[in-house]
Specification:
Pfam family, one: Sdh_cyt
CATH topology: 3 helical TM bundles of succinate and fumarate reductases
Number of domains: 1
Organism: Microbacterium aquimaris
CATH superfamily: Fumarate reductase/succinate dehydrogenase, transmembrane subunit
Keywords: Heme, Iron, Membrane, Metal-binding, Transmembrane, Transmembrane helix
Strand content: under 5%
Structural class: mainly alpha
InterPro entries: SQR/QFR_C/D, SuccDH_FuR_B_TM-su
Subcellular location: Membrane
Helix content: 55-70%
CATH class: Mainly Alpha
Number of helices: 5
């Protein structure tokens, strides 16, 4: 009994029409990975290398950054790309190692739901951040928040 393996370069019949989800996922991982390297190193450079370095990072520094639309969009883009990149990686791992179809489907749905929830929550935090929310007269931020 002999088994023949088809030549990998030979034309394979395609049974599906439409887009190839795995191909687009693979392309997304490469593109988002390159963009994330730029975004993350830019984030680290601004936070750790400019000004007073790590000693400048406090509530006021973060509040100041989140008051700027540029940094809001920078952080949201980094958040979205990182979470989708990570969720797609987890989807690939689940597809590779989970053999039971129902379990695989449940886990993939759980990964995407968790990523979606964190994207929505993170985006809301970035765009609705108010450093004066809940500030009382005893707080050191009281004078700054009254001036605003």
């Amino acid at each position: 009994m002999s088994a023949t393996i088809a030549d990998p370069r030979s034309a394979r019949p395609t049974s599906r029409r439409g887009g190839n989800l795995e191909k687009w996922g693979w392309m997304y991982m490469r593109a988002s990975g390159v963009l994330l390297v730029v975004l993350i190193f830019g984030h680290l450079f601004v936070n750790l290398m400019t000004g007073e370095g790590i000693h400048q990072i406090d509530f006021a520094f973060v509040a100041g950054k989140l008051a700027s639309p540029f940094w809001q969009w920078w952080d949201v883009l980094m958040l979205w790309l990182a979470l989708i990149h990570g969720a797609n990686g987890m989807r690939t791992i689940v597809n590779d190692y989970v053999t039971h179809k129902t379990t695989r489907s449940v886990l993939v749905w759980a990964v995407w739901l968790a990523a979606g929830f964190l994207i929505v929550l993170g985006t809301l935090v970035v765009f609705t951040f108010d450093p004066c929310l809940g500030v009382t007269p005893e707080s050191i931020l009281w004078a700054d928040c009254q001036a605003a």
